[in-house]
Amino acid sequence: MSNVYVIDHPLIQHKLTIIRDKNTGTKEFRELVDEVATLMAFEITRDMPLEEIEIDTPVCKAKAKVLSGKKIGLVPILRAGLGMVDGVLKLIPAAKVGHVGLYRDPETLKPIEYYVKLPNDVEERDFILVDPMLATGGSAVEAINSLKKRGAKSIKFMCLIAAPEGVKAIQDAHDDVDIYIAGLDEKLNDHGYIVPGLGDAGDRLYGTK
Ligand code: URA
Hints:
GTP binding; 31% helix; binds uracil; 33% strand; Rossmann fold; single chain; globular; nucleotide-binding; allosteric enzyme; two-stranded antiparallel sheet; 209 residues; alpha/beta; EC 2.4.2.9
């Protein structure tokens, strides 16, 4: 079963409250999504493997730890996931960035991939898939399918706000994918919005409506 981590850090919760507020404008919204993504990246990388190397400090030789070079692939789900990319890259600047684009088939309402571009060494990378909102989970499940179809073996999913329905959808379809959330909300409404949520993340990030 997927592990679900709600990152209940005071800084994240404070910033998330401002993000949720409908009076927060595009510029501040975008900046805060970026900051929360950075803070979440700190937590999501907690299990990164380390190795010991020998260095010379100004005082003596010392053994010290460095990341053991595990390669990371960062993949935003278009379009709103783009808002989290730079924030994660601040902490993991060497990550390669792939993209997954999905649209909703108007008849079946199922997400269909229209664009997938990943680093070519997919099997060797640990992937972090990002999308600010985990609502029904349809897009996240399909994006994970897209990564796995191309050989991805290790995937974490990171979002700002999740509905319980979305968490369950990932757990049911991909129980090997751990889920990192800043806020776990109450439910989805009849229009598929997360309640209380923050509205449409893509529109709020890019000032569209
Ligand atoms: N996508 C959004 O941007 N907001 C929601 O509430 C649900 C899905």
